[in-house]
Amino acid sequence: xxxxxxxxxCCLAIVLADDSRVVSTAQxxxxxxxxxxGGVYGFYNIPYASAPTGADRYKAPRPPPTWLxxxxxxxxxxxxxxxxxxxxxxxxxxxxxxxxxxxxxDEANLPVHVYVHGGAYQxxxxxxxxFTELVKSKKKISVSFNYRLGVHGFLxxxxxxxxxxxxxxxxxxxxxxxxxNIASFGGNPDDVTLSSCSAGSGSLDFLTVSSxxxxxxxxxxxxSGTVIGAVGTQVDPIQNARNYAxxxxxxxxxxxxxxxxxxxxxxxxxxxxxxxxxxNNEGVTSRFGPCVERDLGQEIFISDTPMNILxxxxxxxxxxxxxxxxxxxxxxxxxxxxxxxxxNEKFSDFLPSEFHFDSEEVKEQVAQRVKQFYFGDSPxxxxxxxxxxxxxxxxxxxxxxLRTLSTRVGxxxxxxxxxxxxxxxxxxxxxxxxxxxxxxxxxxxxxxADGDVTAATNEYKRMQEIMRDYWMNFISNGYPSSxxxxxxxxxxxxxxxxxxxxLGRQIVLRDSSPIPERAAFWDELFDEYFxxxxxxxxxxxxxxxxPTPAPGAASSLVMSNIIFVSLLLSFYFTLYLN
Length: 578
Prior knowledge:
Layout: H1 2-19, E1 20-24, E2 29-34, E3 40-47, E4 71-72, E5 78-79, E6 90-91, E7 97-103, E8 110-115, H2 132-138, E9 141-145, H3 150-154, H4 166-181, E10 187-197, H5 199-209, E11 219-223, H6 237-247, H7 256-265, H8 268-272, H9 306-312, E12 320-325, H10 336-345, H11 360-375, H12 385-410, E13 416-421, H13 443-446, H14 458-477, E14 500-503, E15 507-510, H15 516-529, H16 559-577
Parallel strand pairs: 2-4, 5-6, 8-9, 8-10, 10-11, 11-12, 12-13, 13-14
Antiparallel strand pairs: 1-2, 2-3, 3-7, 7-9, 14-15
Helix pairs in contact: 12-15
């Protein structure tokens, strides 16, 4: 009998050994497990850096911990502090962890794909998208990770305690970790491709204009986000900090010393308690996000505006896939019923916060001009709902990407493979206010990522095959080629934003710019009114008074903010949970 027990134990040990893989990293050994379905090993929640906590929580990340025994790299669902979370999430202030997905192969020097999650810089987590099917079928390594969010990751006071861009510095730490450790997993540290959509895509643009990232990646896939527009640079980061402190019931906001001490003294729970107030209507760049930093004698992410850096051509030049969807403005779908009234009452509140006007009169004149362009003489309503989507698509995503592209190419920069994604099929959801359907925000990323396609149409499966082919060939060789000889050859765009690949029910390389008339309209306004972020901030505090923080939250928010946050959160969490 005992021989049978020993035999069973040995068999179990062999099975467990085959089910796991131990990799040596610079911090110590880590053990990953074979994922259900086989073909891919998953290494979850490995610390790539340490997030400072308490009064230091806004500073750059610190080195990661080390260990001698094997670190069990299991999925503990760690996420960074954020306002809305599900009960299955494990919120930690020290949340800087990386996930690595490795194909079941002994091959080395595999191409590496690093995914940066989106979420308006306010919420999200590394595992909200997975690319394990690509890892399994294409022999690539995929990496995802957390970074600090919202005020926690992007408070920018220009002080030693809160210099700014902590979340972006987390990304730099992650890329350095990949450069040091990915070879142990079978990856090539000199063949790293970054990809993302929305705010994650914007962060990729920021990573390319920072001198801290030189040599850490070779290719970029940017989708629906750049350094201006919806996920661009904070125009006035100190005013944003004052506004949010007021929401948290702190009064002495005009004294920068007191403001800094307030933010150092609040708990992390108090800090994130009113994230809903950050996603307000009057200019998306009034929320916490990337900023231009002051030189404090520390490592600086960027010290000039991104557009200035791009114009000079002094940045990391890499090949990139670059595009948006025809209805990226669907991120503002759920607030339509509220915002149509607000837009009819005061349309100027919806102009880009990056624009500067000499007077309120000029601002109102420009607002009327924009409203006329999109809606004509009619009020905003159900009858012109598609115009509402077009406006938000253009002002938040499409035009900012096209303008940035022209600046990059004009500076003799990157080869950019431009696309407009419009694919829909009979299963694509329609919009409640109209019979029309369209490619929603980040749908070009979702079709590439993991997902259940058992009920999908053959047309959808075919498009998924095409998109994954473009993606993975670009990751492999820096060019979005297709194995299908019937598809057109994709050539880089020029400064006139042409040609571009139209990725719809038909795949066509168009010798033109996407949305040419709408882009020309915004080019004219941009040339005249774009200001960009404030670079000269208030003086650095020299004293440290101790204010009395009032941790309660004010409730002077319009309902549209809450609806918008809920929409985006449900969008991202649905991707992960499904």
